[in-house]
Each structure stands twice: as structure tokens, then as C-alpha cells.
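tool=predict chain=A
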Amino acid sequence: MTTITQKCGIGLQVRGLRKSYGGQEILHGLDFEVRPGEIFVLMGPSGSGKSVLLRHLIGLEVPDEGDIQLDSQPILAEDVMGKYRMAMVFQSGGLLNSLTVGENVGLYLSEHQLKTPAEIARIVAEKLEDVGLKGTEDKMPSELSGGMKKRAAIARALAIEPQLILYDEPTSELDPLSSVVIADEIVQLNQRIGVTSVIVSHDRDLSFGIADRVAVINEGRIVSIGTPEEIRRSPDPMVREFLAAGFKRPANP
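tool=predict ok
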């Protein structure tokens, strides 16, 4: 298993982020900051703006107003995205069914010719072992369980030695035991390599179980932000409603 002592996480800053589609504002001036090496969870119901925010964080959307910064440098500025190593773990895992697990994990390195084939094979084996999937290089994604696919996706993210990992609903469609395994993997990565982790989720157990801080988002606004204990004690009626039974879905998600 890899042992890295150097802390590699980077900070993420979101300032006054606004986005509209067809005249309807989806994100209403979001402001928050993620500290280097932090596990930060963006939590909220479907239709709250989480997915739109996530697309902005990975550079797939351009805000109407405001900006997003990595270590205080705007991500849309020239060459800023190329200076930092960011990885994304998709909700479905995002593995290519036509490739083996090993080929999936090493895909970015091989496509961009960043390492020799021998080096890629070593890195793939190392990262799969890191997530408890040692020896699965030659398996096809169809041979893996849902939880194993999520772990393989994490291994693929790790192959680039990221400073920031974004997770989209990492425990969705998983049984409770697999969800616990994924949560433990995220915590272990944070402790071992100091990577900054931003998790978009509606899973309250995950959020309160592993987060350093939680931001509750509803209808495109940050309703509350703080430690899990601070969120639990929040007097905000919308937060209390969510903790009790979940927010009501917005009329126009």
C-alpha cells in the first residue's frame, strides 16, 4: 500500500457564484471555501443546485457572475487548471465497459503518454491495492459489484496523484455495507496523502460520519455551513426540516 507523507491538498474558493438557465437563476451567489486537506461535503436534496455547482467546480460550466479559485487563483485564468491535479469520481463510477479494470485505472496516464507501460502497470497495481482491489487488473467492469466499481473509480482518480478529488454521490445505489467501505476509503485517503476532498451528496450518514465541515444547499443557496455537530444544532428551520425528513423538493428544480 502506498505511503505518502507529504500533504498535497489544495484550497478551493467559491465567490459570488451565480448561474441561470433560460432566465431562471439556479445558483444564487454561492460563497464558501474549502481548506487544503479538508473533507468538505455539499449536502442537499435533488434539485438543490448541487449538480450545477459540481459542473462549475470541474470547469464544465462558466458562471454568469462570481468565480472559483484554486489556491486563490481563478480556475478560468490561463494555465491555472493545468497547474493543479484534480480528479473526479462520478456517481456511476464512469468505468468504460470495453476496457479491463487495469486499463480503466491507467487510462489517463496511457492516453497522455505520461508514463511508460511498465510504470503505468506498477501505478495501476499500487492504486488498486490502495482501495482493496489487489489483483483485479484483468477483470472487466461487469465482473465487479457496485461498491467495487466505485473503488476502482477512486483508484483511477488516485493514479494522477490528485491534490483535489471531487466525488459525485459516492454512496448512491450502494448497500449499507458498501457505503461504509467507500466512506472509509475516503477518510483513509485524506489521512494518508492529505488530499482535499469535496463530496456532493444527499447521504446524511456519510456526510455526518466523515466530513470536517458540511455545507447545506437548497434552491441554489448555502443555507448553513459548519462542522457536522454545528449543522445538527442549527436553528435554521430548513436545516432542521432536512435533518428530520428532508427538504421539500423545489417547485421548479
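The chain has ten helices and ten strands. The two ends are 43 Å apart (CA to CA).
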